[in-house]
Write a structure and sequence with these properties.
This protein has about 280 residues and is mainly α. Helix content is about 70%, strand content about 0%. It has one domain.
Length: about 280
C-alpha cells in the first residue's frame, strides 16, 4: 500500500509598506476579532454586583462632582441653554468613550503577549477590538443621556441623526489611532501604562468637557480643534441643545486630525509590528 501525503504550506509574506490596513486579512480573522471583543466584554461585567451599571458609574459620578464644584461654586458658563449637569454629561459620554478606548488599546498587546508569542494573528485586531467594549459602554451612557434630556425637557434636533454617528466615527479613529501608536511604544517602553492615566487626566482639561470652547477667541479655537474631541463634543452639545449652530470649520478640523492620528498610529504600528514577539 502506498501512502501519499499532501504537504500544506503556509507562506507568510511581509506586507507592502503602502498598505496600512490589510482589510482582506482582517476580514479572514473576523471571528477572532469577535472573540477578543466578546472576551473583554465578559471580563468587564462578569461577577460584578451592579453589572452594566458600572458603565454609568464613572460619567455619572464625574457629572455630580463637576456640577457641584464647577457649576455651582465656580459658576462656569455653559455657552448655551443647557443646564450644567446635562452640559457636562453630554461631553463626558464621548470623553469616556475616547479615554476607555485609548487606555485599553494601549495595553492590549502587553495583556495578550502570550498569544502574540505563540501563534500568528494580525496583531492590529487586538487594539481595534477594544473599541467594541468601549462602544457598548457608550451606548449605555447614551441611553441615560436621553433620560436626562427628558428630565430637563430638552428635545435634540434632527441633526442628531448624523452628528451622533459622525462623532462616534471621529472618536473611534482618534482613540484607536493613538491607541495603536501607544500600544506599539508600550512594547518597548513599559512606562506608557503608568504615564497614560496621568496624561488622560490632563487631557480632559484640554477638552471642552467642563467648559465651552466659546470662552476662547476664534483664532485659538481653530488651534484648539486639533484635539478631535473638541469638534465632536461641541457639535453634539449643539444638537442636544436643540439648535442648529454647528461650527463646521471646527468639526472639519477635528475630523481631519482624527483621520491623521489614525493613519499615523497605524503606520507606526505596522513599522514596528515585526519586533513585537521578540521584545514582548
Amino acid at each position: 500500500m502506498k501512502l501519499s501525503f499532501i504537504k500544506n504550506e503556509i507562506l507568510i509574506r511581509a506586507k507592502s509598506k503602502w498598505i496600512l490596513l490589510d482589510i482582506p486579512e482582517v476580514w479572514r480573522y473576523r471571528e477572532l476579532f469577535y472573540i477578543f471583543a466578546w472576551r473583554d466584554i465578559k471580563v468587564r461585567y462578569k461577577q460584578t454586583v451592579l453589572g452594566v451599571a458600572w458603565a454609568l458609574f464613572q460619567p455619572f459620578v464625574s457629572m455630580i462632582i463637576f456640577t457641584v464644584f464647577f457649576g455651582t461654586y465656580a459658576h462656569i458658563p455653559t455657552g448655551n441653554s443647557l443646564p450644567y449637569p446635562l452640559f457636562v454629561f453630554s461631553g463626558l459620554i464621548f470623553w469616556t468613550f475616547f479615554s476607555n478606548t485609548l487606555t485599553n488599546a494601549s495595553n492590549t498587546l502587553i495583556d495578550n503577549g502570550n498569544i502574540i508569542q505563540k501563534v500568528y494573528i494580525p496583531k492590529v485586531i487586538l487594539p481595534l477590538s477594544t473599541v467594541v467594549t468601549a462602544l457598548v459602554d457608550f451606548c449605555i451612557t447614551l441611553l441615560f443621556l436621553f433620560v436626562l434630556c427628558l428630565y430637563f425637557h430638552f428635545l435634540p434636533s434632527m441633526a442628531l441623526l448624523w452628528i451622533l454617528p459622525l462623532g462616534v466615527i471621529i472618536t473611534m479613529l482618534s482613540a484607536s489611532g493613538l491607541g495603536l501608536f501607544l500600544s506599539a511604544v508600550n512594547i518597548k517602553y513599559r512606562d506608557v501604562r503608568y504615564i497614560l492615566p496621568y496624561f488622560i487626566q490632563i487631557l480632559i482639561f484640554l477638552t471642552p468637557v467642563i467648559y465651552p470652547s466659546a470662552i476662547l477667541s476664534p483664532s485659538h479655537r481653530v488651534i484648539y480643534a486639533i484635539n478631535p474631541m473638541v469638534g465632536v463634543i461641541e457639535s453634539f452639545r449643539t444638537v442636544v441643545d436643540g439648535s442648529m449652530g454647528i461650527d463646521y470649520v471646527i468639526l472639519g478640523i477635528s475630523a481631519c486630525f482624527a483621520a491623521l492620528f489614525f493613519v499615523g498610529g497605524l503606520a507606526y504600528f505596522n513599522k514596528t509590528e515585526r519586533f513585537f514577539a521578540d521584545i514582548i
